[in-house]
Automatic annotation (TrEMBL):
Coiled coil: none annotated. Keywords: Glycosyltransferase, Membrane, Transferase, Transmembrane, Transmembrane helix. The lineage of its organism: Bacteria, Pseudomonadati, Pseudomonadota, Alphaproteobacteria, Caulobacterales. Gene3D superfamilies: Spore Coat Polysaccharide Biosynthesis Protein SpsA, Chain A. InterPro entries: Glyco_trans_2-like, Nucleotide-diphossugar_trans. This is Glycosyltransferase. Pfam families: Glycos_transf_2. Belongs to the glycosyltransferase 2 family.
Amino acid sequence: MQAARNAPSEVPARFGFSVIILTYARDTALQTTLASLRNAIGDRQDVEVVLVDNNVDKVDRASFLTVFAHRRYVRTGANKGVSGRNDGMAVAKGEILVLLDDDVLIESHDLFDKLSAAFTSEPRVGVVNARKLDSKTMSLLPEFIPHTRKDVDTTRPFFTFRFVGGLVALRRALYQDVGGFSPEFFYGLEEREYSYRIIKAGWKILYQPDIVAIETTDEGGRASRIDQRTETLSNRYIISYLHTPLAPMIANFVLFTLFLVIKERGRVNVGRALGKFSTWLKKPGRPARRPIDRHAQAYIRACGGAIWR
């Protein structure tokens, strides 16, 4: 990772919020996202913007940030995938770390006030997840609901055991306690794996529907659908192996595979996903299997979830 570059103005030792944006092959979408962020920040001086550049070209995107009073630009030097967010989290100076995707627009102009209220509601709230709407339908798609039950009331806040990306905020204390995203995952379900570690450590995840974002689903930098879904399936095997007890793990392997094959109408390569999982199992230094304990299982059940899912 190359050194982060600060704005020329004096930089405070600490901010209330750091907004961290990881970008790759989405310059047009990124600039639209930054414009929505600029509107949300307004004249606040307690927010810094950290742009993590995963592109491998020589374009200097620091110029995209000149509208922000407090800014940092981090060039990773390679496409690290989703774990590139860790480079931004490592240099961020905010007490609240806000992870914003480079193709997601902020709809709530009072975002930071609402985040403050959500985090002060209870000391063990470690993550606040926004309500993310699809730009084409302006609806909350099932895959955007941070819960295994898709009939949960999404018009009201609720505690949950997983979060979905797009617009999500974490306490600095949680990041210091749990660490960042696992480098085991290049793309797909990285939030799911992180969520397991978060609830294992005794933190809570809050879904807050009053905080609204819009997912534009820019196709820049994305792999083909079959490659995406195959990677997702392989990652699901890894996550289930790492974090779920034996019986739920087996159920997850079988039922999720069937679900994905049916949903994607064959646009997933199960054999390749199993092969990737097998290769990962043999990898030296991979994370050890540590299933969630009874406290984390009780938290999932209290949130209305099922351990096997």
